[in-house]
């Protein structure tokens, strides 16, 4: 069962790591869809 | 080979939806002179009856500079295009516009295919997907009732044999665990509006949907890593050979007691599951990446161009598939394809989970401890057991030869 628990642990680490890494490099849906900072939306 | 398989499956997968889009030629020759080329009463009635109307008469009707009225007359300043003409050009993506937004899709003001996609997603995709999963569960239940659990027939409990190493099991569970969570969160996303909201309400579903999206997007990397690991680990053992035909001709002994066709490490059934995982896994990962990075990885217009060049879509009556798409349309096709592959994948994995757990005594040990009952292994993988025992004997003999010199 050790391999299974190890895999589930790795899954959690990869999931959190992927979120952090993608956010850091600016590859997120929010960034893609946002307008330029030079555009006023008010 | 993979590309051809994907192409063929793509054609059949899109047959239902694209078929509806292409049955439009009946109105091509319709006389619209009474409305000056605009929509007629007959067009409206056809739409109300749910019939398709070829939009070409509107697509190309976007005004003309040659027909521009004099500057002193009405519409003269629009250069020959009325407001309707301008909106038609926007709708069909032919308007020459510029936008300040950074988003690649911002230049599409009206996306004509959006409604069709929404209807497909909430209509036939959800309906047939649910039928497929439900039907698979019913069939497996029937199989269990009729056949019962497949027991070890010989003397069990005497010894065990190592079936999968720790790394093999790690790769399997990384792939399997992430797949299960991706499947669950994907189903919650697709069926949320129909199933979860009526049960739990909008507020609760909002939290569930946000969490599902976050988990689905990020755990996908574990799934892709798991896919790579299982492929590298097992591809050499899954090359089809003539032995598989023997196994298939006896249906693997699944339907009859006392029948155990010979197999090496993986039998033909397991090979089918393996290749299914690889082909569907690659396809769902590709469409998933396209969805994960919106508008960055468009692939359907190019795929359709390749398919059109083969003549396959025309052969099966789909006509020429669209080769020019709005960015949103690329995403919509990616979402539909992602879901179609996911449903087929889940149905296949249901069968895999069944036979690896409740359906067969002793099978689950291969993926928990890695050690299986030797009798089980002899009944289901006789040639593999012989190979392992031969390798053990050779290793022991070699050790025996080396020992006196040490």
Task: Report on this structure.
The complex is a heterodimer of chains A (42) and B (406). Chain A has helices at 2-24, 29-33. With 42 residues, chain A is mostly helical. The relative contact order of chain A is 0.09. The model of chain A has no long low-confidence stretch (mean pLDDT 78). In chain B, 63% of the residues lie in helices and 1% in strands. Chain B has a two-stranded antiparallel sheet. The model of chain B is unreliable at 1-6 and 11-27 (pLDDT under 50). Classes of the chains: A mainly alpha (42), B mainly alpha (406). Chains A and B meet through α1 and α2 of A and α6 and α7 of B.
Taken as a percent bin, the fraction of beta residues of chain B is under 5%
CATH topology of the domain at 115-164 and 239-398 in chain B: Fumarate Reductase Cytochrome B subunit
Work out the number of β strands of chain A.
Answer: 0
* Rg of chain A (CA only): 17 Å
Helix content of chain B: 55-70%
Structural class of chain A: mainly alpha
* Largest interface (C-beta under 8 Å): A-B, 24 and 34 residues
CATH A-level architecture of the domain at 115-164 and 239-398 in chain B: Up-down Bundle
The whole-number mean of residue pLDDT values of chain B reads 87
- SSE topology string of chain B: HHHHHEHHHHHHHHEHH
- Sheet-strand content of chain A, in percent, reads under 5%
Element pattern of chain A in H and E:
HH
Which CATH C-level class of the domain at 115-164 and 239-398 in chain B is it? Mainly Alpha
Could you say which overall geometry of chain B the principal axes of the C-alpha atoms support? elongated
């Amino acid at each position: 069962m050790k391999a299974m628990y190890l895999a589930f642990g790795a899954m959690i680490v990869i999931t959190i790591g992927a979120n952090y890494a993608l956010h850091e490099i600016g590859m997120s849906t929010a960034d893609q869809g946002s307008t330029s900072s030079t555009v006023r939306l008010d | 080979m993979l590309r051809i398989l994907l192409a063929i499956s793509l054609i059949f997968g899109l047959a239902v939806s694209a078929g509806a889009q292409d049955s439009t030629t009946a109105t091509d020759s319709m006389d619209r002179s009474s409305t000056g080329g605009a929509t007629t009463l007959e067009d409206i009635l056809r739409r109300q009856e749910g019939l398709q109307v070829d939009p070409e008469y509107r697509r190309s009707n976007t005004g003309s500079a040659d027909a521009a009225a004099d500057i002193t007359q009405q519409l003269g300043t629009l250069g020959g295009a009325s407001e309707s003409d301008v909106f038609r050009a926007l709708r069909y993506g032919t308007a020459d516009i510029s936008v300040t937004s950074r988003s690649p899709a911002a230049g599409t003001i009206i996306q004509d295919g959006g409604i069709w996609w929404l209807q497909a997603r909430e209509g036939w995709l959800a309906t047939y997907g649910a039928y497929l999963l439900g039907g698979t569960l019913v069939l497996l239940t029937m199989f269990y009732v009729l056949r019962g659990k497949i027991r070890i027939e010989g003397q069990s409990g005497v010894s065990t044999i190592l079936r999968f190493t720790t790394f093999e099991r790690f790769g399997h569970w990384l792939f399997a665990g992430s797949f299960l969570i991706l499947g669950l969160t994907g189903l919650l996303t697709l069926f949320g509006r129909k199933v979860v909201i009526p049960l739990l309400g909008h507020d609760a579903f909002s939290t569930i949907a946000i969490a599902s999206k976050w988990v689905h997007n990020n755990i996908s990397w574990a799934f892709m890593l798991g896919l790579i690991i299982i492929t590298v680990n097992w591809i050499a053992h899954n090359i089809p050979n003539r032995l598989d035909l023997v196994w298939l001709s006896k249906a693997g002994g699944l339907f009859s007691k006392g029948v155990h066709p010979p197999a090496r490490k993986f039998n033909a059934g397991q090979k089918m599951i393996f290749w299914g995982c690889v082909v569907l896994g690659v396809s769902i990962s590709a469409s998933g990446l396209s969805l994960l990075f919106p508008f960055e990885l468009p692939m359907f217009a190019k795929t359709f161009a390749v398919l059109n060049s083969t003549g396959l879509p025309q052969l099966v009556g789909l006509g020429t598939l669209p080769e020019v798409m709005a960015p949103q349309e690329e995403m919509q096709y990616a979402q539909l394809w992602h879901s179609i592959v996911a449903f087929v994948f889940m149905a296949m994995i249901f069968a895999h989970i069944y036979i690896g757990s409740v359906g067969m005594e002793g099978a689950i040990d291969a993926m928990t401890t890695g050690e299986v009952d030797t009798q089980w292994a002899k009944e289901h993988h006789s040639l593999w057991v012989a190979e392992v025992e031969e390798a053990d004997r050779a290793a022991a003999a070699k050790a025996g030869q080396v020992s006196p010199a040490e």
